[in-house]
Design brief:
The longest helix has 12 residues, at 3-14. Helices cover 27% and strands 23% of the residues. It contains 4 helices and 5 strands, in the order αββαβαββα. The structure holds tetrahydrodeoxyuridine.
Length: 135
């Protein structure tokens, strides 16, 4: 699957976002190393902090189906600049993405900024920072 196809999957799932509170729809499309696609949209809640972002929905779907090796993630929203993934999502990405996984952030105008995992969350807290017995 090429970059445009992955972004189109993110755009498509974005329309399924459950956003009665913010009305801000986000879509994410995640490609595993073996070519399996997982998509996610943001899912809000009346208890606002319970909301789950599109990126995390896609990653959690993949993890729960047994995939832990990833290649690329595309994220899209209707923003002026390519949508920046939130800090919590970057931390979840860093748990599962190797430093060379590619992240395409984009908007509905087709502007895209591309990052490696290392670029989007440098100096991230990792299991290697935990004491030996907690790894
Ligand atoms: N949102 C995402 O889905 N991903 C992000 O990286 C940024 C924020 C969602 C959460 C909430 O439903 C809405 O966008 C407004 O913050």
């Amino acid at each position: 699957m090429n970059q445009n196809e992955l972004i189109n999957h993110a755009k498509e799932i974005r329309t399924k976002a459950y956003t009665p509170y913010s009305k801000f729809q986000v879509g994410a499309a995640l490609l595993t190393e073996d070519g399996t696609l997982y998509t996610g949209c943001n899912i809000e809640n009346a208890a606002y902090p319970v909301t789950c972002c599109a990126e995390r929905v896609a990653i959690f779907k993949a993890i729960s189906e047994g995939h832990q090796k990833f290649k690329e993630l595309a994220v899209v929203a209707d923003t002026k600049r390519p949508v920046p993934p939130c800090g919590s999502c970057r931390q979840v990405m860093s748990e599962f993405f190797d430093s060379n996984v590619t992240i395409y952030t984009t908007n509905l105008d087709g502007e895209t900024k591309t990052f490696s995992m290392d670029e989007i969350l440098p100096f991230s807290f990792a299991s290697s920072d935990l004491p030996e017995e907690q790894k």
